[in-house]
Amino acid sequence: MGEAYIVEAVRTPVGRRRGGLAAVHPADLGAHVLTALLERSGADPAAVDDVIMGCVDAVGPQSGNIARTAWLAAGLPEEVPGVTVDRQCGSSQQAVHFAAQAVLSGTQDLVVAGGVQNMSQIPIAFAALGATEPLGLTDGPFAGSTGWRARYGDAPVDQFHGAERIAAEWGITRRDQEEFALTSHRRAVRALDGGRFARETVPYGEVTADEGPRRDTDLERMAALPPVLPGGTITAACSSQISDGAAALLIAGERAVRDHGLTPRARIHHLSVRGEDPLRMLSAPIPATAHALRRTGLKPADLDLVEINEAFAPVVLAWLKETGTDPERVNVNGGAIALGHPLGATGARLMTTLVHELERVGGRFGLQTMCEGGGQANVTIVERL
């Protein structure tokens, strides 16, 4: 078996809901990063075997196979195909996995992987259903399934209840969550002010930097927010932000690197995906990480950096408790609580940030994981070259 290399990785700034990217068509967001990816890598667009992009809630302007639409909107060769992946929040991380697997199998040599999401235009919670509250068994994708009801009963199935279940099971208080959220904002502001995102970010018009980090937030303001669920601990301050954005990576095999004179920046060391309790939903990164470390023989101390998606603060806090990983190596430039979570793009955004940050600090191994709807989690371990 050969190798799968990351040659280039770019992203747009992450726009806030109704912010600077809100009116941009998702295909144009995707086209923007695809164009920049190929320009920076120097790869011949005609040599690309496939374009795989993640997108969640593929309706309206995100429907019709946005990967293909974005490629064509960028003016790139018509003979190159595209396919859109939906593994919920892990969609574009799964796109990277599929691209790497194609290269590792030898069936393809050069694949673009990425993701796009405009949540200002297509809100979360199944906009087509008109939902404005967390979805339960009666009005979500499980409605009418006798098999689901027989297995899991009538318990509500949504991320808010899942996050509360994690907080209760791992003994994570609201104050714990708020302190974690404040750290996320402070780290993101430090990264922005220090230019840490400059190399990975491709400005879109007047949007030149991530719009989510809040410089003026504090624990007092967070404590004044109402919980999402009555009597709960989860508030908007401890949750990922609704956002818009896109990201893309170029994955190449050894032959493509040789034939096209490409310069790899990182190697895919490991990739896997695991499932867990769909009611708790968001805790799957814990067993998924344990699985990946067993398979590779690595220990948490071997990881120079970790990017774990901050869907909700308890997700990361529970993962930290279970893995014993040094918090100073985790989400060092902030996470989705501060930077935002454009669902279908976040996996590729995290991977882009991970590769660039490994280069900045001179680290060797970086791990990425994220919770996903249905109680799933992808894990990717990359090695900087």
TrEMBL record:
PROSITE patterns: THIOLASE_2 (PS00737). It comes from the Bacteria. The keyword Transferase applies. Keywords: Acyltransferase, Transferase. Belongs to the thiolase-like superfamily. Thiolase family. This is Acetyl-CoA C-acetyltransferase. Gene3D superfamilies: 3.40.47.10. Residues 263-384 form the Thiolase C-terminal domain. It comes from Streptomyces yaizuensis. The keyword Transferase applies.
